Amino acid sequence: METTVKREVRGVCPMDCPDTCAWIVTVENDKPVRVRGDENHPYTRGALCAKMNNYAAHTQHPQRLLQPLLRVGPKGAGSFHPIAWDRALDIIAERFSQIIAEYGAEAIWPYYGCGSFGMLQGLAGAGRRLWNVLSTSQHVMTICTISGGVGTGYTLGDNRMGMDPETIRYAKLIILWGTNTLSSNHHLWRVVQTAKADGAHLVVIDPIKTRTAEQADEHISLIPGTDAALALGLLHVVVSLGAEDREFIERHTLGWEAFRDRILQWPPSRVAEETGVPEATIWQLGERLARTRPTAIRMLMGVQRHGGGGMAVRTIMCIPGVTGDWRHPGGGAAYDTRGFFKGNWGALHRDDLRRPGTRSLSMTRLGEGLLDVSDPPVKALFLYASNPLASAPAQGKIRAGLSRPDLFTVALDQFMTDTAQFADVILPCTSQLEHADLHNTYGHIYISWNEPAVPPPGQCLSASEVFRRLARRLGLKEACLYDSDEEMARQVLASGDSSLEGITLERLKRDGWVRLNVSDPFLPFSHDFPTPSGRLEFYSETMATRGLDPIAGYTPPYEAAQRNTELARKYPLALIAAAKHYQLNSIFANSPGHSKRQGSTKVLIHPVDAASRGITAGTPVRVFNDRGAFFAVAELTDGVRPGLLASTKGAWPSLERGSSTVNATVAERDSDMGGGAVFHDNRVECEAASDNVQ
What we know:
The chain is an alpha/beta fold. Helices cover 29% and strands 18% of the residues. A hairpin with a 6-residue loop joins strand 18 and strand 19.
């Protein structure tokens, strides 16, 4: 009889989620049998989300890639045969060397996404040293937080700082703005419930009546992209009541008089016209905001995925500067918390090894980069932690670019994604249960170590090991390219900052996670701000020098709020695509269990809009504009306003009717700040679908 050897291993979830849950992996005979939340972690508290509860099984999916593959058929056909690792690395090194010799290293685009947030295996650091030494094109992460982050930085002085979300438990008014907490940040819900039990009032501001909005005391639906106008209207009420915190404003802010003048230009009547929010609702919430301390505002990425997204987050971040909430435990606004981790990023990334002046390429302009960029053209694409054919805008352009016969593409992945099918070489990589990693987070102030729980299956290698081996194949001599995972982790932890004092790799390996050395409750901006002036900046001289409007305000979206224009008449419906409850971006789209729970792709449509188009509940529909089209099933609901459609992101085109998804309709266009994506700034039409589309 075989003896069962059972053990438990501490780790952390790597996914694109602010919760970054600490977990414990149960292993039996070197097989993961269960992943559960760490009961002792103050934020995780023993719970994982609906996406991750069955992660152990997902890592053992029968379609898991287990050996390197070489393409033998047309690009996109999915025809490959196995090859050895040595052969795969030789092919990549040879092609890279040829491309560098003929076009220069900038013809290579290392393209990575949000498949992992790790410092060693994910977007926070994986491969950075290799690409710096080679001086390839620089990949710019524009798909997620960047627009709102830049806006945050102009107001607070750091793109990745805000209130500590754990302190929301002290708030008396909570505004969840552009975030579906129960689906995308659900561990915060316990904090919100604690505050509500102590009398807090919960408001959700979202164009859609989400799961979270259904649980709120108040749901305010607005026209997509008009959030900053609503913020100005709320502040107009605060100022009209004389409820601004004049002491805080005088001591801790810059540019109040100019910002006050702008606020006074946005009375509730004007804001109601712009946002679609009733004037009485604006007055009601404005009065509540004026009299309630502390007020906490939590935003996530949805609020800034439009042409005015950076200014929207900047202006919302100004609200606690007017009300003085930054001085109170439970007061302030949160968008990203990664800036509180003061790691030695320079030692991890080694940007000093890069040749000055190398170009940058935006990940949300991949189609343009592959089809239009020249001097030099992109001749090689190295993809990891990303499935852009499912996740990036302009899906049709991306497919055309990936089909280029002269483009050499490498995909490092766990599965044969739609994007991987266009690769020339596919490399099988480890999952979070099979490699080491170090994580901070954008939703709380704990850092975590992920200890590998089981050996890699088949011939899978970690991303860090792939980059070490590739560097050796390329004959590169810089010693740091060959540092071990633990050496890199020690280097980033050794910053000398007081927030990391006593936080060593040995301590993290023993305990799994550690809270940063900051006060509890943590009030990061009760006295000063990391801006050039040391104050919260209603007026930003930095913005002025960059040719931007220096005063916080409202920048309309490109398309979503248009009315009575030629575009709005041709495409009368605005479209937004939110995160799925059972799927994380494009991850788990190929999981039968997740897909069954999530159901088919739907489009939420108001009954008035459906009736005028002859659409009934359950009708297959085609949603389209000049950029492309996708198919879905109509769900009639008053959870969206007339003139608005709502769908979800992350589907794989190959698994959808018509081999396209919502991103086929999304523009390859930059937001106002940081070059962020505009997924929620989209006008379309909707019609009943014909029966002959497969």
